User: Which sequence fits this backbone?
């Protein structure tokens, strides 16, 4: 379980110690593209208070096939055989190794929750669903919360069935679609009209109404004004914050 309503951004955007004085959580992005050295992640953990929480994105070798443009930021050299084995939750050594690396990153950060973000190209085909079911049924979760962010034309009933059967948190932008796991909410806000969007106070008050009654939720902003928006949302919820403001 998590503390009620963890608010943060997708990536720090400020020095870690400064960020952690003002917000309670961050979603680590580097673990998706090219996981840092474990010593680096352990150092991040030491730089912030004990109650500060990290979530992290699972390594792209699990979710994205090698043709994804995100692989341009991958430093690990893959052979052609490894490129064929990567992504889409395939039952391959590459995917299994990527999960072990992701697990090690979660341990170094003392994370409670891992996000699996899928590309729109990961469609609800019979093969993809079978791979996803096998992966989440067989991996060692180490008591982690696992969030799944499907994109593209996924039928809501299919998503709900998979989240129920596989014990997954349905990750959404709540202004785009509602989650099928409302008591285990993981919101990622990308900007209502693109990345440069800044949320108005009334919109953030609407967001507050979308939170589960249990207040068991993560809320991460992923827009150019993410720090300002996160701080304003935190203020609306009445969370304590440092008196100093982060300048935009």
Assistant:
């Amino acid at each position: 379980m998590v503390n009620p309503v963890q608010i943060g951004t997708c990536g720090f955007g400020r020095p870690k110690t400064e960020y952690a004085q003002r917000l309670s959580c961050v979603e680590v992005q580097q673990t998706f593209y090219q996981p840092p050295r474990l010593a680096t992640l352990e150092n991040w953990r030491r730089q912030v208070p004990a109650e500060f929480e990290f979530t992290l994105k699972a390594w792209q070798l699990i979710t994205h096939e090698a043709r994804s443009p995100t692989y341009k930021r991958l430093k690990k050299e893959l052979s052609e055989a490894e490129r064929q084995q990567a992504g889409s939750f395939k039952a391959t050594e590459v995917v299994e190794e990527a999960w072990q690396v992701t697990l090690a990153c979660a341990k170094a950060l003392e994370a409670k929750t891992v996000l699996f973000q899928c590309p729109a190209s990961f469609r609800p085909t019979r093969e993809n669903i079978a791979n996803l079911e096998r992966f989440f049924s067989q991996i060692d979760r180490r008591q982690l919360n696992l969030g799944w962010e499907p994109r593209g034309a996924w039928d809501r009933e299919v998503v709900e069935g998979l989240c129920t059967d596989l014990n997954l948190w349905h990750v959404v932008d709540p202004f785009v679609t509602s989650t099928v796991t409302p008591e285990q909410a993981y919101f990622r806000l990308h900007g209502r009209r693109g990345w440069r969007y800044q949320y108005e106070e009334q919109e953030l008050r609407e967001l507050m109404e979308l939170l589960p009654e249990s207040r068991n939720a993560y809320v991460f902003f992923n827009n150019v004004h993410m720090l300002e928006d996160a701080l304003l949302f935190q203020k609306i919820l009445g969370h304590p914050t440092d008196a100093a403001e982060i300048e935009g």
Summary: Residues 6-237 form a domain with the TIM Barrel fold (CATH 3.20.20.410). The chain is about 35% helix and 15% strand.
